[in-house]
Each structure stands twice: as structure tokens, then as C-alpha cells.
UniProtKB/TrEMBL annotation:
GO terms for molecular function: bile acid transmembrane transporter activity; sodium-independent organic anion transmembrane transporter activity. This is Solute carrier organic anion transporter family member. Residues 45-666 form the Major facilitator superfamily (MFS) profile domain. Belongs to the organo anion transporter (TC 2.A.60) family. GO terms for biological process: monoatomic ion transport; sodium-independent organic anion transport. It is found in: Cell membrane. Its main location: membrane. It comes from Catharus fuscescens. SUPFAM superfamilies: Kazal-type serine protease inhibitors, MFS general substrate transporter. It catalyses: L-thyroxine(out) = L-thyroxine(in); L-thyroxine sulfate(out) = L-thyroxine sulfate(in); 3,3',5'-triiodo-L-thyronine(out) = 3,3',5'-triiodo-L-thyronine(in). Pfam families: Kazal_2, OATP. It is a multi-pass membrane protein. InterPro entries: Kazal_dom, Kazal_dom_sf, MFS_dom, MFS_trans_sf, OATP. CDD domains: MFS_SLCO1C_OATP1C. The gene is Slco1c1_1.
Length: 710
């Protein structure tokens, strides 16, 4: 267009028909139109990318909120749920290199749109087992579901039970065994989460690079900040959606809810976990639609057309030049880049600050990822809260505290113009005080619920030996009970009994949730010889537990804020202590290490450790161990908080080492060496030179799973 404008100007000037000013007016008007179309296009892309960030953060956080629901629905241990959770990182790692390299050469908006479709397909796949597994079956004595048949929970003689009832019960068990393959459908959840990881891969690198390429330079940081802000909102809605779905029964719309005999407070309760995945999948589909109509390229702003340093895309992606350079030159360039790979890697790992900070980050992310993954389970088991209330609290209180902490860290860095050494101190201080506050949570736990035969004996005293044989006592010795059942009832004495049979109950009245058991020989044996009654469901935790839960929430919010304050300073420390030409490579290694060494293994070994605190395992219909029904509260507290605190303490030691190395480098001799280029990019002089570039780059970098690791 500029060429034609020049030709027209030349033509009219030779013929002296029109003044030159008119052609310049045309060029100015065309430039203003181009600027308007550029701004309009980039803003549309910004809005679409923000919505995608919201969608992926929502689905990721919703998965965290359904951890306990998945355990109970598929009868699997926490360690296996940890594998499912880590499959997202595996899917992301499978194609991140291909997407990062080839994606920049192709139609980036459409690749992001395709990623959204894959992400939504994975989300829908997670929900699919609900429609093929049949209805959810929980353990309940037959008399509690049918008021017309009166059965004795304590089956002294099976001949007392009507034959038709026994036949129906056996038929149900056989039918359950035939459908036992349905219990392996957790594999579809794993594959769906794997697909989610694959679909999410192109969103961050291609989306941020697209904004950086076509946005006006002074607006790029603002646009990227808007995207990250929207990404923080996603987990809030994800956990609130989890809270809503956890209130609804898993088979809502398929069964008569009046026939359901368990409540959300029961350990066997499973909410409508699948409903949230359907909603998240629809949102992902809608988020991907605009990208199919966006152009491959937008007109670049005038300020960037002649800039050689306008974007990372122009620096690191080899494109066809206007003069069509030969393929031999490109091969030589690639060979030169490959030859420079090992020296760059050696240079990077020879930087002690980078290595120490990388180790500190890996260990700290192990602690944070494990803690956040099982935080809903910890609150439910430790304080006796429902899944719905737990997700509501996390979404409405904890995540805003994390977002505010991250913002505060960046604000402090800007307001006080903190350098590398100050950033290291701020990062270390936030970690130290955060884990110090975490230490106080050890004193804010609840005691074990009184469960006869598990945490207390039938005579009210704590058992001193193995708990399983203690399920049977003299008071229920005449009953034909199974130790594998879990159908808790609450006795008048405030003690929970594993089942009505093990409580020695001889009769029952009512049906469903209103069932009352009478003549229970084990209830009240520690106080009197008279038999007592019991009601369906476990007893509530102690009177002090609600107060402890309130204290836990307050300390948890303060801890989340304190730990988050150090996130931004620590990341800037990482950027400013690396030679400028190695920053992208260093960030790639950092992201890869966090995903492989923290994102994948942390949920697994945290789950294995939590499984060791289980007191009562559920049983599958055809044998085999199912999901845990009851945890040892004290052991769970020490394992969950202890493992987090040990990992956090180790990361603090590495952070101290980082600070020590930086202090050593800040001596006058080392400043001179740094100025001469012999000691890397941590010197005072290079800090000033790289300040602007680092601040611009920090906006476009990615903290692995920042949206869901809150």
C-alpha cells in the first residue's frame, strides 16, 4: 500500500494536478485505519485468550475439588487419584516441544482453537464413566430401604431372614460382580485428564507470543497482565462449581432422591461430580470458537515494523525472509544452533544461583502441589466438613488470598525498586514465615471420632493393639456380622458403630434416613447394662472441632498469602541472574523440571503417605480393597502437615544458599568481574541493563500450573 501511495504521489507531482499534501493525507488516514484495525484485532484476540485462560483454570481447579468424589465413586485409594491428577502434566509434556517449535510457524489462533477442542474432549471423557457404570451403590442394611420388611440387623440365624430377601441380595451381588469391570473406568478419567493436558499445551506459549508480536509495545505488559488476572478468577469459579455439584447426589435425575439413605456428611456420599465436567467441557468448546475466525497475522503497529527486538518470536523462530534465502543457509544456521546447545546447557548449569534456585523451587513446588491437591480431603477428614463446604471455603477464601499475595509481591518489588539481593531476601522471608505459620496448624486439629472397635473399644477405652480384631466383642459375638461392611450408625452414647450388626441391634423401625435401631447390645455397655438405640449415620465430631476449623481457616489464609508474596520476587531473581541470551532456554528448563519433578510425583507420594493413615478400608463387591472410609485424624495431620513442612524446610535451606551466593557475588571484586562479563548476569551493572527486559519478560512467562496450584 505504501508503494502505491508513493507512485501516486510521483504521478500527481509530475502533472501538477493535485498537491502533494493530499497524498500524505491519504497515507496518514490509511495508517490510522491500520492502527485501528490492529488495535481492534488484538483486543478481540485478548478477550478470546482471557476466556480460554478462564476455562482451563476452571476445569483444572474443578478436578482438584472432586478428588474425594472420584475416590469413592471408583473405589480407589488416594495414591491412584494422585496418578490421575499427575496425568495432566504428562499430557502437557508429551507435545510441548512440538507445539512450541512448529506452532509458531503455523496458524497460531487455529492451533489454540484446536487445543480448546481437545481440552473439551478430555473434559467430556472424564464425565463419561458415569453413564456406563450403572447406579452408585453404597452399603446399607436392607431394612433401611424398605419399611414393609422388618429385618434384624443382628442375624443370629440366617434362617430368620426371608428367602426372597436373601435371593435378591445375592442377585445384586452377582450383578455387581458382572459389572466389576466398571470399577476400572477410572482409566477413562486418567485418559481424559491426559487429553486436557495435551489440549492446554498451545494456549500459553502461542497465545502470549501472539500478543507480544502484534500489540503496541507499551500495551503488551498490560494485556498479558489482564490475561493472568482472569486466570486467577478461574479457580474461584472452579471450586464454587465443585461446591455446588458436591451438594447434589451422584445419580440425580436417574434415581428417586427420597430413596437415598445417606447424607452429604456420610463418608459414602458422592456428589454429582460428572455434572461439573460437562459444564467445564461446554465452556471450553465456547472458548475455542473465536480462534477459528481470527487471522493468522495481524498488521503490526508502526512502532514495531522496524524494530529488531520487538518480540521473542522474531528472535528465536526462523521464518522465510523477504529475499528468500537459500535452504543451505538455514541448515547451517540450524547446525550452528545445535552446536551451541551443549555449551549453553553447560553455561546454565554452571550458574550456582540458577541451580540452587531451581532446586529450591522444585522442592517447594513438591510441598505446595501435594498440600493443595489433598487440602479438600484433609479438611473433610480432619474437621468433619462436607465436600461442598470445603470447596466453597477454598474457592471463596484461600484463592483470593493467593492472588492478593502475588499482587502484593509485585507491588513491593516495584514500589521499593528492589534488586536481585532484595528479591532473594523477600522470597526467603515469605517462605520462612509461611512455613512457620504452617507449623502452628499442628495444634489446630480434631481428635479422632469415637468409633467402636477402631478408635475406641466397646468399653470406651482406647485400643492398645491391632484394631481389626477389636471390631468383634462379646456384645456382638452372637451376630453374623462382616468386618468389611461400612454402614455407620450413631449410638445414644455418642459413639459411632461400623454397622448396626456390629452394634448388636436386634430390631429397627422406619425407613431411609429416619431409620432407628433398637435393642443394640453394644450401645451404652460402658455405662449400664441396659440396651440402647441408634440412628443412621456417624456421630458428629467433638464440640471443639468447629472452633478449631475456624482457627485453621484464619491461619490457612494468612499462610497462603505469606507464601504467595515471595512468588514474584523469586521469579524475578531467576530471570535477572541469567545471561540475557539464555533466558528463554533457562525458563524452559525451569518449567520442564517443575512439571517432571514436582507436578507428576508429588500427588502420588502424598497420596501413598495419606493411605498409610487409613483405619477402615472399604471393600469392593467381589473382594479387594476399595476407598478408605475412615482415617486416623492425628496420623493424617502429622503426615499431611509434616510432609509439607519437611519439604518446605529443605527448600528454605536452598533459598538461604541462594542468598549466601548472591551476597558473596555482591562484593567489590565480584562486581568488577561481573562488569567485565566473567561472572554472569548477577552483577550490579548488568542488573540495571537488564531491568526493563526482565520486567517485560516476566509478564510473558509461565509459572507452571499457577492457576491450579493455589
Amino acid at each position: 500500500m505504501e508503494v502505491s501511495s508513493k507512485e501516486n504521489t510521483h504521478f500527481f507531482s509530475n502533472n501538477t494536478i493535485l498537491p502533494v499534501d493530499r497524498s500524505s493525507f491519504k497515507s496518514e488516514s490509511s495508517a490510522s485505519k491500520e492502527k485501528q484495525s490492529c488495535c481492534g484485532g488484538i483486543k478481540i484476540f485478548l478477550g478470546a485468550l482471557s476466556f480460554v485462560y478462564f476455562a482451563k483454570a476452571l476445569s483444572g481447579s474443578y478436578l482438584k475439588s472432586t478428588i474425594t468424589q472420584l475416590e469413592r465413586r471408583f473405589d480407589i485409594p488416594s495414591s491412584l487419584v494422585g496418578v490421575i491428577d499427575g496425568s495432566f502434566e504428562i499430557g502437557n509434556l508429551l507435545i510441548i516441544i512440538l507445539v512450541s517449535y512448529f506452532g509458531a510457524k503455523l496458524h497460531r489462533p487455529r492451533i489454540i482453537g484446536a487445543g480448546c477442542l481437545i481440552m473439551s474432549a478430555g473434559t467430556f471423557l472424564i464425565a463419561m464413566p458415569q453413564f456406563f457404570m450403572g447406579r452408585y451403590r453404597y452399603e446399607r442394611f436392607p431394612s433401611t430401604t424398605n419399611s414393609t420388611v422388618s429385618l434384624s440387623p443382628c442375624l443370629q440365624d440366617k434362617s430368620q431372614t426371608p428367602l426372597s430377601v436373601l435371593e435378591k441380595s445375592q442377585t445384586k451381588i452377582n450383578a455387581g460382580c458382572e459389572k466389576e469391570a466398571g470399577s476400572s473406568m477410572w482409566i477413562y478419567v486418567l485418559l481424559g485428564n491426559l487429553l486436557r493436558g495435551i489440549g492446554e499445551t498451545p494456549i500459553q506459549p502461542l497465545g502470549i507470543a501472539y500478543i507480544d508480536d502484534y500489540a503496541i509495545e507499551e500495551n503488551a505488559a498490560l494485556y498479558i497482565g489482564c490475561v493472568q488476572t482472569v486466570a486467577i478468577i478461574g479457580p474461584i469459579f472452579g471450586f464454587l462449581l465443585g461446591s455446588l455439584c458436591a451438594k447434589l447426589y451422584v445419580d440425580i435425575g436417574f434415581v428417586d432422591l427420597d430413596s437415598v439413605t445417606i447424607s452429604p456428611k456420610d463418608m459414602q456420599w458422592v456428589g454429582a461430580w460428572w455434572l461439573g465436567y460437562l459444564i467445564a467441557g461446554v465452556i471450553s468448546v465456547l472458548a475455542g470458537i473465536p480462534f477459528w475466525f481470527l487471522p493468522r497475522h495481524l498488521p503490526k503497529p508502526e512502532s514495531r515494523k522496524d524494530s529488531s527486538t520487538s518480540s521473542e518470536h522474531s528472535k528465536f523462530i526462523i521464518e522465510e525472509n523477504k529475499d528468500q534465502r537459500t535452504s543451505s543457509w538455514q541448515q547451517a544456521k540450524l547446525a550452528e544452533m545445535a552446536k551451541d546447545f551443549l555449551p549453553s546447557l553447560k553455561n546454565l548449569f554452571g550458574n550456582p544461583v540458577y541451580i540452587l534456585y531451581l532446586c529450591a523451587s522444585i522442592i517447594q513446588f513438591n510441598a505446595l502441589i501435594g498440600m493443595v491437591t489433598y487440602k479438600p480431603k484433609y479438611i473433610e477428614q480432619q474437621y468433619g466438613q462436607t465436600s461442598s463446604k470445603t470447596n466453597f471455603v477454598i474457592g471463596l477464601i484461600n484463592i483470593p488470598a493467593v492472588a492478593f499475595g502475588m499482587f502484593s509481591g509485585g507491588l513491593i518489588m516495584k514500589k521499593f525498586r528492589i534488586g536481585v539481593l532484595g528479591a532473594a531476601k523477600l522470597s526467603l522471608g515469605s517462605s520462612f514465615f509461611g512455613y512457620l505459620l504452617l507449623l502452628s496448624l499442628f495444634a489446630m486439629g480434631c481428635e479422632n471420632s469415637d468409633v467402636a472397635g477402631l478408635t475406641v473399644s466397646y468399653h470406651g477405652t482406647r485400643p492398645m493393639t491391632d484394631y481389626e480384631p477389636a471390631l468383634f466383642s462379646e456384645c456382638n459375638s452372637g451376630c453374623s456380622c462382616s468386618k468389611n461392611d461400612w454402614d455407620p450408625i450413631c449410638g445414644e452414647d455418642g459413639v459411632t458403630y461400623v454397622s448396626a450388626c456390629l452394634a448388636g441391634c436386634q430390631a429397627s423401625s422406619g425407613s431411609g434416613k429416619s431409620t432407628v435401631f433398637f435393642n443394640c447390645s453394644c450401645v451404652g455397655t460402658s455405662e449400664s447394662s441396659q440396651s440402647s438405640s441408634a440412628v443412621v449415620g456417624p456421630c458428629q465430631k467433638g464440640n471443639e472441632c468447629p472452633k478449631m476449623f475456624l482457627y485453621f481457616l484464619v491461619i490457612s489464609v494468612i499462610t497462603s498469602y505469606t507464601l504467595s508474596v515471595g512468588g514474584t520476587p523469586g521469579y524475578i531473581l531467576l530471570l535477572r541472574c541469567i545471561k540475557p541470551h539464555l533466558k528463554s532456554f533457562a525458563l524452559g528448563i525451569y518449567t520442564l523440571a517443575i512439571r517432571v519433578l514436582a507436578g507428576i510425583p508429588a500427588p502420588v507420594y502424598f497420596g501413598v503417605a495419606i493411605d498409610t493413615t487409613c483405619l477402615k478400608w472399604g471393600s469392593k463387591r467381589c473382594g479387594g480393597r476399595g476407598a478408605c472410609r475412615l482415617y486416623d485424624s492425628s496420623a493424617l495431620r502429622y503426615v499431611y502437615l509434616g510432609l509439607t513442612l519437611v519439604l518446605g524446610t529443605v527448600s528454605v535451606f536452598f533459598s538461604v544458599a541462594v542468598l549466601w551466593v548472591l551476597r558473596k557475588r555482591s562484593s567489590p571484586q565480584d562486581e568488577t568481574l561481573s562488569a567485565n562479563g566473567e561472572r554472569g548476569a548477577c552483577g550490579t551493572k548488568s542488573r540495571k541493563d537488564n531491568f526493563v527486559n526482565s520486567d517485560q519478560l516476566i509478564q510473558s512467562t509461565y509459572w507452571p500450573e499457577k492457576e491450579t496450584r493455589l
